[in-house]
Write a structure and sequence with these properties.
CATH topology: Nucleotidyltransferase, domain 5
Shape: globular
Low-confidence stretches: none
Strand content: 15-25%
Mean pLDDT: 91
Radius of gyration: 14 Å
Number of helices: 3
Helix content: 40-55%
Order of helices and strands: HEEEHEH
CATH architecture: 2-Layer Sandwich
């Protein structure tokens, strides 16, 4: 097994263990985070109906962020997602770090969402 497949296996194992205990209800949806090399994505998901309530990312048409892979961009995504959640009527969420370690961009996005008014 090479380094890349070992890294992917560790990531999927972490993702499964985190996701096992988290469930998003309509009153308290799941805030899931995805990051790539260039961009960061966040969305609020209702797991009972399986639909996305609102989302924010660095590649949205309004407010596109050029450097989408840094902590400042992630923080602004968190703030933007919190604003969208308030318009939908959501105040509390369950944070799903999606197998990523809670540091860097993931931590910055969570701090931005908390600054925007989301509780978790």
């Amino acid at each position: 097994m090479n380094r890349i497949t070992a890294r992917v296996k560790r990531y999927t194992r972490r993702k499964r263990s985190v996701r096992k205990s988290i469930f998003g209800a309509p009153s308290k949806p799941r805030l899931t985070v995805t990051r790539t090399g260039k961009n960061t994505y966040a969305q609020l998901i209702d797991d009972t109906s399986g639909c996305t309530l609102c989302s924010a990312s660095t590649i949205e048409k309004e407010g596109k962020i050029e450097a989408g892979s840094n902590c400042a961009a992630a923080k602004s995504i968190g703030i933007r997602l919190a604003e969208k959640a308030k318009t939908v009527g959501i105040e509390t969420v369950v944070f799903d770090r999606n197998g990523y370690r809670f540091h860097g961009r993931i931590k910055a996005l969570a701090e931005g969402a908390r600054e925007g008014g989301l509780k978790f």
